[in-house]
């Protein structure tokens, strides 16, 4: 019997916590909820760097062959309900979507009510190298549980948008990435020694960046700096700016939500994945 004929193990999942991070409650009336009908969805664990990393998984319940894989990288608020919902939306489109809890060694953002505490006590302590390695282990795990390693993509939001750029310069097996309003420049620290603008020359897979023209935390100047770095590196990447949108314009549970920009960005993401062979 060839390896390809061996049965693919079904990942064990349990119901994941469905609460939003307290730092962003109460949630807006625009919050989208995607059901799990027809999906195998829930919380699982992935072996990574000697530990069991929690993760949220969503994929079609019934399928033939192997599924294209999308790594979903969290906002600073962790793998809370919004990120889980994004995974279910992708699964409804035929993807295996996995969101690993990339802060699990440092803490859980859902334990804090202030954004400043999440940043200072959790996110600021997470090394980029640890994150990239955890994503590598997640991709490998997916390939052992019904995912197609030749059709690997990544998307991330805010903190995860920055990580998306970095991962596209890290893993040459990646087919495509879509970064939603992730920071492009910044101070160099022990945990974050480089930033996307530094890694443009190392990009090995196509990246689509989605940004808001009214984002007070990511200046249009920094977006233009990244565009110049992409051109200088002759990298395959594109940045779209929505002039009327602010930061976190895809976060339907927050006041920052911009439905027009979010819908356009989502469609562009799906088309980007298809264009570069993820599906």
Q: Give the strand content.
A: 15-25%
Rg over alpha carbons: 18 Å
Order of helices and strands: EEEHEHHEHEHEHEH
Please bin the fraction of helical residues.
25-40%
Major β-sheet strand ordering: 1-2-4-3-5-6-7-8
The total strand number stands at: 8
First CA to last CA: what distance?
28 Å
So how many helices? Answer: 7
The assigned structural class equals: alpha/beta
Overall geometry = globular
Instruction: List segments where confidence is low: pLDDT < 50 over at least 5 consecutive residues.
Output: 1-6
Taking all residues together, what is the mean pLDDT?
94
* Biggest beta-sheet profile: 8 strands, mixed
3D architecture notes:
The structure is a single chain. This protein has helices at residues 81-92, 115-121, 128-143, 159-168, 196-199, 220-233, 259-275; strands spanning 39-48, 51-60, 67-73, 96-100, 147-157, 176-180, 207-212, 237-242. By secondary structure, the chain is α/β, with parallel strands linked by helices. Strands 1-2-4-3-5-6-7-8 form an eight-stranded mixed beta sheet, sandwiched between helices. Helix 1 (81-92) links the parallel strand 3 and strand 4 (96-100). The protein is globular.
